[in-house]
User: What shape does this take?
Amino acid sequence: MTGWDRGSAPPLPTETRPLAAGVFMAAIEPDVIVLDLATDTYACLPHARDDLSILGPSVEAELGLLGLLADAGLLGDASRSSPGIALDPPVRGFPARPSLWSIPAAASLVVAAATARRLGPLAPIRTLISALPSPPVGHADTARVAAVVAAFTRLLPWVPDQGACLYRAFVLLSMLRRAGQNAVWVFGVRTWPFSAHCWLRIGDAVLDDDPERVSHYTPIMEV
Assistant: This one.
């Protein structure tokens, strides 16, 4: 899909429409990036930022552009709620102390890694999300999170396929939830050249990556 060109025609009425379930958008400079979980693909709408306002889980645009988005299956019929995405990048790493790692946390890594292996290296994002343990209720216990992150950091080099960001984030988030903790799974994008990345954060701290690296990505979805 190419950018929407108004030309010299008079402006059309604008309207706000909800994005389809599993569709997320992020504006990066003049372009808009689309993540569609149904097809497990990213797409770029070049030079669409001036013609398209992203309003959380909805978009506002002229009717002609909305028609194109609807034809592409990117718009839904009913509004959906979605929490806001934290656009400020993490500013620090999480202080994982190796002395805090525990046998239960190590065992949970084995379970999470086995689940990831069963799903396969090309598992779609939504399949990985569905395979996560249910999120716990309550506030984070910093000491327990530190123990889990320490076990993850210490033992991950012994686990196959640890280089993929999806794999790392899935394993660590599974470990955290089994320990009664939680984190935000952030999916980010950049353009020219296009690249997608993901990481885990708690507040302004990134758990499984370098804050400088993730600062180059614009968040498009959070789990």
In short: The helical segments are 63-71, 103-119, 125-130, 142-155, 165-178, 211-214. The chain is about 30% helix and 25% strand. The mean pLDDT is 87. The CA atoms of residues 99 and 150 lie 8 Å apart.
